[in-house]
Structures are given as C-alpha cells and as structure tokens.
Amino acid sequence: MIELIPDLPDHVVGIIASGQVTASDYQTVLVPAIEAKIAEHGRVRVLYQLGPSFAGISSGAMWDDMRVGFAHLKAWERVAVVTDVDWIAGAMRLFAFAMPCPVMVFANKEMGAATRWIAET
Predict the structure, then answer these.
(1) Cα distance between residue 34 and residue 67, in whole Å
(2) What are the Cα distances from residue 82, in Å, to 4, 28, 85?
(3) How far, in whole angstroms, is CA 75 from its chain's centroid?
(4) Most buried pick, 36, 45, 62, 84, via CB within 10 A?
(5) pTM value?
(6) Which pLDDT score is estimated for 70?
(7) Is residue 38 a contact partner of residue 10, using CB atoms and an 8 Å limit?
(8) How many Å apart are CA 92 and CA 27, to the nearest integer?
(9) How far apart are alpha carbons 69 and 80 in whole angstroms?
(10) Which pLDDT does position 69 carry in this prediction?
C-alpha cells in the first residue's frame, strides 16, 4: 500500500510504502500525485519511504516505477529514498549516477533528515 505524506512543501510528493506495494498503488496514488506536481511546478521532488512494515513490491509496480521515471526524466529535481531494506538502499546508491537529479538514501531512523534534505532550497 502507498499513502501520501501530508504537510510537505508544495513542490514535494511524499509517500510511505507499507505491506505489499502493487501496480494499482502506483496508478491510483503515486503517478497522479507526481503528474499533478509536474503540471503545477514543472519539476518535482520525491520523498519515498519504505516503512518498517514494507513487505515487498510487485513486478507490475516496479514496471510502473520505471515507466513514470522515464516518462518524466527531465522533471526530477531531487529524490530521497528512506529504507532499511539493504538491497533497495544498495540499488539506489548504485544507480543514483544514472538519475538526472541528486538522489540520497536514508535509513528509516533518519526520516527527519530526509525530509529536511528534500525540502531545502
């Protein structure tokens, strides 16, 4: 499941993933939120927390993740990934160089630092 994080600056989309994340979560929550921010601001920052109860992501959700990333490649301003899942943190660090924006990885206990970093000007 994906839920939006409230009370973030207007140019930031924040989400918390818990349980099993599906393609439907991307199509009904994440993609519309990102596209709305891009339409409003031209660019978007994303704070993506894989919370302690995160159980996994479906192949359909991974496909949607790649699709939204490539569809809006020039719109990414910053991405913060907050996770204690080692393989996700490692993959994000490994592929950060290929992103068109700064990418930072934080542990769940560093959620405050991630929020400050994604919001700073």
Answers:
(1) 12
(2) 14, 21, 9
(3) 13
(4) 45
(5) 0.90
(6) 66
(7) no
(8) 22
(9) 14
(10) 66
pLDDT at 113: 98
Q: Specify the residue for token string 């206990």.
A: 109
**Tokens at 63, concatenated:** 């496909």
- Residue 82 contacts by C-beta under 8 Å, 6 or more apart in sequence? 47, 48, 49, 50, 105, 106, 107, 108, 110, 111, 114
Q: In 3-state terms, what secondary structure has residue 8?
A: coil
Residue 61 corresponds to which tokens in the numbers above? 């959700």
Handedness of CA 21, 24, 28, 33 (dihedral sign): positive
Place of tokens 């943190």: 89
Token pair belonging to 5: 């994080």
Strand 2-4 relative to strand 12-21, pairing: antiparallel
Percent above pLDDT 90 for the chain: 69
Question: Residue 34 in contact with residue 1, Cβ under 8 Å?
Answer: no
Residues 76 and 5: their CA atoms lie apart, in Å, by 18
